[in-house]
Amino acid sequence: MKVCLAQLAVTPSKKENLSKIMSVFDGLEAGTKLVVFPEYSMGFPKEGLSRRYVEENSEKLQGSFVGHVASLSREKGVAVLLPIFEEGPGRVYNTAVVIARGKVLGGYRKMRLFDAFGYRESNVFGTGSELVLFRLGTMSFGTVICYDIRFPELVKKQAMAGADVILVPSAWYRGQMKEEQWQTLLMCRAHEDTSYVVGVGNANEAFIGRSMVVSPSGVKALDLGGGESIGYYDLDPRVVSDARRKLPVLKQSAEEAPACRVLGRGL
C-alpha cells in the first residue's frame, strides 16, 4: 500500500495552506492509496499558536477546508489523514480527520496535549477522549498526534486492537536533542509493537520536519530530513505479520501483568 508523506512548510494563512495541500494531490504518484499531512495543517503563525488564532481558523468536520480535501480524495480515489483545528462544543480540538475516497469517516482528537518544555497546548485546545482505528484494503491504521507518541500505552492499545500501522502527524518543535528524541520515539513504538510507524512532520521553520517511516522491526526505512518535501513508501502487510510471528510481543502483552511488590524503604 503506497503512502504519501506530505511534509509541508505550513504558513500563517489557512488559504495558502489549503493551496499547498491541493498541490500535493496534483502531483500524486500513481498507485498512491493514502496521503498523510502534518499537524497544524490549517496554519501556524510566527508568534506561535494562541487560542484566538485557532478559534478564528477552526471549522467543523463538515466545513469547507475538509470539504475541499474530501473532493480531491474522491477525485483521486485515495484516503487522507488531515489534521485540522476542529470547532467543537465549547472548545477547539487538535483533530486528525480521516477521509476515504471523499467520505469523512470521523477524526481523532489529540489526547496528550503538549504541556512541556515551556509550552501549554492545553491553553489552546480541548482534550480528546478516545482512540480510533480505520481500515484500508488489507491493513488497519491507528493514529496519534505529535506529543502523543511519548505515551507508549496509546500506541500499544491500538496495536493490540489490530492496527498494523500507526500514523503520527506532527509539528515537532526544534530544540536541543529534539530530533534525536523524535527518531528514537518512533523507532521504539514501532519495535515494541511490531507495527509500521509513519511520522509526518511540519516543515515550518519552528519545527524539525523529519518525516519518516519506521518498519515493524524498529528500523528507519525512509527519512525526508528537513525542509518541505514529499515522500512515498510502500507498506507491506506481510512485513507486519512476519515481524509479529518472529517477535510475539503483542500476544505476550495480553497476559496479565503481575502485581508490583514493594521491597522496603532501602537505605
Characterization of the model:
The protein is an alpha/beta fold. It has a single domain (2-249), classed as 4-Layer Sandwich (Nitrilase/N-carbamoyl-D-aminoacid amidohydrolase), CATH 3.60.110. Helix content is 27%, strand content 26%. It has 7 helices and 12 strands. The protein has helices spanning 14-26, 51-57, 64-76, 152-160, 178-193, 237-246, 249-253, and strands spanning 2-7, 32-36, 79-87, 92-100, 103-109, 133-136, 139-143, 165-170, 196-201, 212-214, 220-223, 229-234. The strands form 2 sheets. Strands 5-4-3-2-1-12 form a 6-stranded mixed β-sheet. Strands 6-7-8-9-10-11 form a 6-stranded mixed β-sheet, with helices on one face. Helix 1 (14-26) packs parallel to helix 3. The radius of gyration is 18 Å and the shape is globular. It starts with a strand and ends in a 14-residue tail after the last helix.
